Amino acid sequence: MSPLIQRLEAMLEAGTDNLLLRFGLGKAYAELQQYDQAISHLQQAVVFDPLHSSSWFWLGRAQYEQGLLDEAEKTLGKTVQVATEKGDSQTVKMAQVFLRRVQKAR
């Protein structure tokens, strides 16, 4: 487990729980290819802020990497919607790349 994850998990255990903590944990777990943990934290992140396009993207990416193609397709579609509304064109492009990967994986 990385030092970052250890610190963030300790914060969570101490009672801190917010968007940035959950997003940080989810992204860190995804980067370590621990997708179950990543998905769990990122699902909480989008509950904290349903308009946080980066949380939606990383959730969809983790679902894709875990082989949850139906869920990934829905989540990445939501990513495109949220990111477009916010004017976050880079996240839109990244989500579209992963949507194409989902379609190819079918």
Describe the structure.
The structure is a single chain. This protein is mainly alpha-helical and 106 residues long. Helices cover 81% and strands 0% of the residues. It has 6 helices and no strands. Helix 1 runs antiparallel to helix 2. The longest helix is centred in the last third of the chain and has 18 residues, at 69-86. The mean pLDDT is 97.
Taking pLDDT < 50 over at least 5 consecutive residues as the criterion, the unreliable ranges are none
Straight-line N-to-C gap: 32 Å
**Top-tier CATH class:** Mainly Alpha
The total count of helices amounts to 6
The third-level CATH topology is: Serine Threonine Protein Phosphatase 5, Tetratricopeptide repeat
Into which percentage range does the β-strand content fall?
A: under 5%
Q: How many separate domains?
A: 1
Percent range of helical residues? over 70%
| Average of pLDDT | 97
Number of strands: 0
Rg on CA atoms, Å = 13 Å
Write down the overall geometry: globular
Task: Write the element-wise H/E pattern from the N-terminal end onward.
Answer: HHHHHH
CATH superfamily placement: Tetratricopeptide repeat domain
- What structural class should be given to the helix and strand makeup? mainly alpha
CATH architecture: Alpha Horseshoe
* Biggest sheet details: none
